[in-house]
Amino acid sequence: MSIIGIVAVDRQGAIGRRGSIPWHYSADLKFFKQQTVGHACVMGYRTWLTLKKPLPNRLNIVMSRSAEIEGQESVIVLRDKLSVLSLKPYLACDLFIIGGEQVYRTFLGEIERWIVTEIPLAVTDTDTFMPKDYLQGFRPYSSQELEENLKVTFYERGEKR
Ligand SMILES: NC(=O)c1ccc[n+]([C@@H]2O[C@H](COP(=O)([O-])OP(=O)(O)OC[C@H]3O[C@@H](n4cnc5c(N)ncnc54)[C@H](OP(=O)(O)O)[C@@H]3O)[C@@H](O)[C@H]2O)c1
Q1: How many domains are contained in the chain?
Q2: Tens digit of pLDDT for each residue in 55-82?
Q3: What's the 49 CA to ligand 1 centre distance in angstroms?
């Protein structure tokens, strides 16, 4: 069981604009699904609000200090990082940290691997960014081209080569 950060980042480190993701790459959505199905996905309440329904075939763990979400299958609301990490010994799947910025920041010290889609754009008016040093202490170990100009890099903890 691993804790894995998964994110799509533009050329300036942006991940969002006005509460949503300011690009659409179906190859990346398909890749995200492929990676996360059968696992647990941890998201912030704002990211939860961008979904029309829970991510299917995944345990949806929504973080919020106070918001209530109506009970529904495969969705749990947890109030803090410790509550999420307490699940770790009992999960028979990986724990994907799927954003947004606040939640990535919350788990920076715990994430063991990053899966980063490099969006080939410099989007204007973005307001949500990855922390500048989020890949510090990680090294790339694999990459994949989802389509022309759309690359994913896999990182693990370890010294840079
Ligand atoms: N490009 C990508 O891969 C990607 C992925 C995901 C999201 N996004 C984008 O990122 C943006 C949202 O990011 P964001 O940083 O504004 O919001 P967020 O992290 O999605 O959600 C923030 C909320 O989550 C709760 N939360 C966060 N940290 C917590 C903690 N440690 N303990 C308890 N609750 C916690 C709080 O909810 P309460 O206020 O209810 O307490 C907080 O207001 C959107 O634009 C979204 O589209 C991009």
Answers
A1: 1
A2: 999 999 999 999 999 999 999 999 999 9
A3: 9
